[in-house]
Design a protein that fits this description.
Helix content is 3%, strand content 44%. The chain contains 2 helices and 39 strands.
């Protein structure tokens, strides 16, 4: 491992893309008084905590009142808390509730349509619920929205085969759903955590490269040899947005705290910074090399990667004005981690881990680890090292830099990935060649359960089971 080389500053490029219509803050405040957990989706849709959906109608003329009140409703004299079918506020902004009538999703059809509705307009980027029927009297609110796309069945491909065996998941996985890119076909397999067989699939037209989720609401998907990242709404099971880039996007890293996603592209040495609040590109960072194996530090201040052509390891220091630092080189890098002020780098072929002090960029030591180390996961003072050859997890104490535990997965599979289970002390270890996963308690450092799956796992996302929009 070589010591520090010259640091290079990054070039910054502003991302482009049309901004979606945002519901005015005054309207958000009005709704939040009765429903504080309301989701004001980036495309304009208003979704109450129980998944009741309102369509916002932007007025041709508005009054900028600081605090809004209701001008009229249907049924008449209703309050927001009663969730009426129609609400017109005193700034002329209107809300239409998506309702079910004779088995079809629609909105209220009034004989005498209020002027505020006749002259208003839906956000032009809004994703309307599947099968939504707009009454003839309200066709004027549609604008350029292609309503025909709302009449399909979304991406869902139902599984007509018999249901598979059930399983009892560990407590943090109860009520969860797995979205799996298996590598065996293009589609995303959907498996409930109490089952081993896919319940259905989400159809894809390209081979998936990476798959990540945000807020239990959206899937972000990149594909091999395809210059578009798709964003899928899990409530609608439809592509809600396509992000077109000038090169093929590869890895996706979600920073929930900062509400941004980092989308990498090795083919043009770039990292795109994507806002999760507005679902638009904010910046493009031009970096060095054919970048891969990205890792974000736990505090979101540093982004590590390796140049696959040279084996040089780099870090983008966001806290230091996006400075780019060269850490040195290491052969056949399989994974990078950061813990206790130190950088940990594994070599897949050399079965070794190198340790570098971040502040001085000085080489500290190099240790022999399990064969074919393919993934790392840092939690507290522990670094979990996944060895694919023997299906083993080694635990490295990052204070003393010594191996303290060895956890044997006791499977004949080729373990490939570690996935943390949100809001728990547990991690999942999945396999790209065999359909099963192991759950490890990182506090007691034990394998607590191994469960079968009917499909291998190249990439997996675990979310709360999502309710469809009412």
């Amino acid at each position: 491992m070589r010591k520090f080389l010259t640091s290079v500053c990054l070039s910054l490029f502003l991302g482009t893309g049309a901004m979606a219509m945002q519901v005015p803050q005054s309207v958000q405040d009005f709704v939040n008084k009765e429903f504080p957990e309301t989701n004001f989706r980036f495309d304009g849709a208003i979704i109450l905590p129980d998944n009741t959906m309102y369509l916002p109608i932007f007025p041709a003329k508005t009054n900028d009142d600081k605090e809004l009140s209701i001008k009229s409703t249907y049924p008449v004299n209703a309050t927001m808390k009663q969730k009426p079918d129609m609400i017109i506020l005193d700034n002329n902004f209107a809300l239409l509730k998506v309702i079910n009538a004779n088995g079809k999703k629609t909105v209220i059809n009034l004989k005498d349509t209020p002027e505020e509705l006749q002259s208003g307009l839906l956000p032009q980027d809004i994703l309307l619920p599947k099968g939504l029927v707009i009454p003839e009297s309200l066709k004027g609110i549609i604008g350029n929205i292609d309503v025909t796309v709302t009449q399909d069945n979304g991406l869902r491909i139902n599984n007509t085969r018999a249901k598979g065996k059930t399983t009892v998941p560990v407590e943090p996985l109860e009520g969860k759903t797995f979205y799996i890119a298996s590598g065996a076909n293009k589609n995303i397999q959907v498996i409930y955590s109490n089952s081993q067989k896919p319940d259905y699939a989400l159809e894809q037209t390209h081979v998936i490269n990476d798959l990540k989720s945000y807020n239990n609401e959206f899937l972000f998907v990149t594909y091999f040899d395809y210059k578009t990242m798709n964003i899928i709404s899990l409530m609608d099971e439809k592509i809600i947005k396509q992000v077109n880039l000038d090169s093929v996007p590869e890895q996706i890293i979600i920073d929930n705290d900062k509400k941004v996603a980092y989308i990498t592209s090795g083919s043009n040495s770039s990292v795109y910074i994507f806002s999760l609040e507005t679902m638009t590109l904010k910046k493009r960072l031009k970096i060095n090399g054919k970048c891969e194996k990205f890792t974000l530090s736990e505090d979101g201040s540093k982004l590590f990667y390796v140049d696959r052509n040279t084996n040089y390891i780099w870090v983008v220091d966001f806290a230091d004005n996006y400075k780019l630092k060269n850490i040195g080189s290491f052969p056949n890098v399989s994974k990078i981690a950061y813990a206790n002020g130190k950088i940990y780098v594994t070599s897949r072929t050399k079965n070794r881990i190198a340790i570098v002090d971040y502040e001085t960029l000085g080489f500290l030591s190099e240790l022999e680890v399990c064969e074919k180390p393919v993934d790392l996961y840092a939690k507290g003072d522990d670094l979990f090292i996944l060895g694919a050859q023997e299906n083993i997890i080694e635990v490295l104490n990052t204070k003393e830099d010594v191996i303290t535990d060895k956890l044997f997965l006791n499977t004949n599979a080729f373990a490939t990935n570690i996935t943390p289970i949100d809001n728990s002390n547990m991690i999942m270890v999945t396999n790209a060649l065999s359909g099963l996963y192991s759950v490890i308690d990182t506090d007691i450092k034990e394998v607590v359960k191994t469960s079968p799956l009917d499909v291998p796992v190249r990439a997996i996302v675990v979310t709360d089971t999502v309710k469809t929009i009412k």
